[in-house]
């Protein structure tokens, strides 16, 4: 990326709409309600031949105290300082507001490169506000319509000089190979996974509101990049950030707190939750963050079960551990509740952390790498079938209705998560309890604790690799016998039976 562009302005002037148009995807939440965006969101933008990084910011408020609006403003001002170019957007239909005058003065002091954009300028309704924008003293405004894509050529013309200025900052991406994408016939069980900036480790942090997700990520990043505070539900967008954690390149998502579906009534909160669910699907490791005061609430269990059903590696982290007095007793209770309430994640890592002090982050880092390694594990076919033989000897499958179920052959068909197929007779008659018996055995005997495991029963007749060869051999034998009979009959010899 050649330069960084920060989009700033009052709430509800169309910053997130323009951000989505520049990145080519609906990454940022958009709604008619002002103040939807609260955190900084970065994306890779394309505009004609230009490639650059764009930052969507919270609407500039006049508050300067420690209130939520004040903290949002400080975060936006930080984005202005770190960006190479600022696009100051105003609403052409509303005209220049007193707050626009204040923020224009701030930008003149903080940023040397400012582009003025008059958004919502399509049609006659925006003409007056467009000409009024000249009074801000930031040069000729760009006439835009972020919703309809008008004015993009003019914006490209304004950005091209900056692209040339920052061209020398272009950096080629690393090309390290991520061996986690293993071919299907790979038989090595102990492959070391490598990470690179091109393919970093993907992590999503999920949990209920006010569990401390944003605070935890800020501590991992080593900077206050995400908006935090005592209020519940501050985060609305699923914000992703690329960084390096103890030598491991990673991309981490901060998600909105997920409440019970019955309590989610507002459209905006529904959008926030669906945005967080998408982050879970894009991630490789999901960190389910619990509050030590109210762990394993019903919603926590639903969130952990969601991550397991999506097939993601799961790490359970218990936050605010620094506030707990009886640590040993509490830890014992947590482990017992984890085993009892989440049997589908038996053996998954559970660590205690303090997002405020940073204590326990080393354990969390190790648990994430361990869970990711198990998630990528591959077991050789020979070892799987030796294990299957022992499991059948210890506990044979039932015979419903007197029909015996034969489990003949087992192989691993994919990783991420580990998925296995067993060729058997009557796959539709295998009870779910026997499937759980085999899955628990895989976790315990083949060192795959906590990771989601997929086990499929297939009829052996569906895919028999020798079936066609056998039929071809029989047909050839029949033709040979028939020919011999005809030849002997022609010589008057009685054929042998």
From TrEMBL:
Pfam families: KH_dom-like (PF14714), MMR_HSR1 (PF01926). Residues 458-497 are annotated as: Disordered. GO terms for molecular function: GTP binding. GTP 2 binds at residues 207-214, 254-258, 319-322. Residues 3-167, 201-376 form the EngA-type G domain. Keywords: GTP-binding, Nucleotide-binding, Repeat, Ribosome biogenesis. GTP 1 binds at residues 9-16, 56-60, 119-122. Gene3D superfamilies: 3.30.300.20, P-loop containing nucleotide triphosphate hydrolases (3.40.50.300). GO terms for biological process: ribosome biogenesis. InterPro entries: G_ENGA, GTP-bd, GTPase_Der, KH_dom-like, KH_dom-like_a/b, P-loop_NTPase, Small_GTP-bd. It comes from the Bacteria. Residues 460-471, 479-491 have a biased composition (Basic and acidic residues). Belongs to the TRAFAC class TrmE-Era-EngA-EngB-Septin-like GTPase superfamily. EngA (Der) GTPase family. GTPase that plays an essential role in the late steps of ribosome biogenesis. Associates with the 50S ribosomal subunit. This is GTPase Der.
């Amino acid at each position: 990326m050649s330069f960084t562009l920060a989009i700033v302005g009052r709430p509800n002037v169309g910053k997130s709409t323009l951000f989505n148009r520049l990145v080519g995807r609906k990454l940022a939440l958009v709604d008619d309600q002002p103040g939807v965006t609260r955190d900084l969101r970065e994306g890779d933008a394309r505009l004609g031949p230009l490639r650059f990084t764009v930052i969507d910011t919270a609407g500039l408020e006049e508050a300067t105290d420690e209130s939520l609006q004040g903290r949002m403003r400080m975060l936006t001002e930080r984005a202005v300082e770190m960006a190479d170019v600022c696009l100051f957007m105003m609403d052409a239909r509303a005209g220049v507001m007193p707050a626009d005058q204040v923020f224009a003065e701030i930008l003149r002091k903080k940023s040397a490169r400012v582009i003025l954009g008059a958004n919502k300028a399509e049609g006659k309704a925006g003409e007056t506000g467009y000409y009024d924008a000249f009074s801000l003293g930031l040069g000729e405004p760009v006439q835009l319509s972020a919703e309809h894509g008008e004015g993009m050529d003019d914006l490209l013309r304004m950005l091209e000089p900056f692209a040339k200025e920052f061209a020398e900052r272009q950096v080629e991406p690393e090309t390290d190979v991520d061996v986690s994408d293993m071919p299907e016939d790979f038989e090595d069980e102990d492959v070391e996974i490598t990470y690179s900036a091109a393919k970093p480790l993907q992590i999503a942090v999920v949990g209920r509101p006010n569990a401390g997700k944003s605070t935890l990520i800020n501590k991992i990043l080593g900077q206050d990049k995400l908006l935090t505070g005592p209020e519940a539900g501050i985060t609305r967008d699923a914000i992703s950030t690329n960084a390096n954690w103890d030598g491991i390149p990673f991309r981490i998502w901060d998600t909105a707190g997920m409440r019970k579906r019955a309590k989610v009534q507002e459209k905006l909160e529904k959008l926030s939750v669906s945005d967080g669910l998408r982050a879970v699907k894009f991630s490789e490791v999901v960190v389910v963050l619990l509050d030590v005061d109210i762990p394993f609430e019903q919603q926590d269990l639903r969130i952990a079960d969601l991550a397991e059903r999506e097939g993601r590696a799961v790490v359970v982290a218990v936050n605010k551990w620094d506030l707990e007095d009886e640590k040993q007793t509490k830890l014992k209770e947590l482990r017992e509740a984890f085993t009892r309430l989440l049997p589908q994640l038996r053996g998954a890592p559970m660590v205690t952390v303090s997002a405020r002090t940073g204590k326990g982050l080393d354990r969390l880092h190790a648990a994430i790498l361990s869970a990711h390694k198990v998630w990528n594990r591959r077991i050789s076919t020979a070892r799987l079938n030796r294990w299957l033989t022992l499991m059948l000897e210890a506990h044979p499958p039932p015979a419903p209705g007197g029909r015996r179920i034969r489990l003949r052959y087992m192989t691993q068909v994919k990783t991420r998560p580990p998925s296995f197929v067993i060729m058997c007779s009557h796959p539709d008659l295998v009870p779910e309890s026997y499937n759980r018996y085999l899955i628990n055995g895989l976790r315990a005997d083949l060192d795959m604790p906590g990771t989601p495991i997929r086990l499929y029963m297939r009829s052996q007749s569906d895919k028999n690799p020798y079936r066609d060869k056998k039929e071809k051999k029989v047909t050839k034998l029949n033709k040979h016998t028939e020919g011999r009979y005809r030849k002997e009959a022609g010589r008057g010899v009685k054929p042998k039976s």
